[in-house]
Amino acid sequence: MDFSILRRAALVLLGAGLAVSAFSQDLIARQAPVDRRLRAVDSVAIQRAVERDLGTMGSEIYTSWVTNRAHPYKPEEVPDSFRIDLRGFCMPTTSRSVTSRFGYRPAFKRMHKGLDIKVYTGDTIVSAFDGRVRVVRYDEGGYGYYVVVRHTNGLETIYGHLSKQLVQTDQEVRAGEPIGLGGNTGRSFGSHLHFETRLAGEAINPELLFDFPAQDVTADFYTFRKVEKQNENPTYLAAGDTPATEDVARKATHFYKVRKGETLSAISRKLGVPEDQLAAQNRLSSGKRLRTGQILRY
């Protein structure tokens, strides 16, 4: 037997083995960054999915999911402050006509905790933001047929006096997706949409977030701040639809949105609030020019 041939064959096999090993190591080395990138992508995707799911449930604020009541929250559940992302919005209706604003109603001796928007029976009402439907019920003495949606930005919106509900409890909805039809059900004196914006049950004036005449939001973000209590009476009434006494209601904080060309003195006359008091409450210097869309507290 020719041992030289065997030696050469052995050397060839050894070389091939080393080449395969080197190629494998090189392949593994090249693959490692890809694996890391894929793991990073997977992690980001998983994280976004988790955030999306938790955001829908409002985990930063909410610890419960009650589907049979519009207002199940306690005052202590309201955060001291919270930044609300208003991007990705859709106006709930194309109507620009606000027929009744947020604030105290002397005729009913109670707070009106939303906006009434003029719509006609059968008009399409859509979700203002992405979220999940929490309540789909009928309230004979109040909202009529209504829908409550908890949104990914922490807000909950309420759509009342509907003629028909187009969604079901626990349904995921996107901003702009139809959720109901305008109507005149419940405690209503004409077809309209009763629209509320709430954070953990605390009513926020929708005009601080939405500009219905302009069909836009007021800014990209809105920072909610819990108002401290004074003399045991809330300066901003607690959430819920319990009628307020006139005394408490007078102490409630209201908001006014400055219209184009308005001055502080003109607004003072319109609201019946002394100009110096209005200036002090809003930290305005005498003669300071107001911005269109600026929100004044009174």
Summarize the model shown.
This protein is an alpha+beta fold and about 300 residues long. Helices cover about 25% and strands about 25% of the residues. It has helices at about 5-55, 245-250, 265-270, 275-280, and strands at about 80-85, 100, 105, 110, 115, 125, 130-140, 145-150, 155-160, 165, 170-175, 180, 195-200, 200-205, 210, 215, 220-225, 230, 235, 255, 295.
Which tags fit this structure?
4 helices, 298 residues, alpha+beta, Glucose Permease (Domain IIA), 27% strand, globular
Name the beta content range. Answer: 25-35%
What's the CATH architecture name of the domain at 75-220? Answer: Distorted Sandwich
pLDDT below 50 for ≥5 consecutive residues: which ranges? 46-52, 228-252
Number of strands: 21
**What integer is the average pLDDT?**
79
CATH topology of the domain at 75-220: Glucose Permease (Domain IIA)
Biggest β-sheet description: 8 strands, antiparallel
Secondary structural class = alpha+beta
Shape: globular
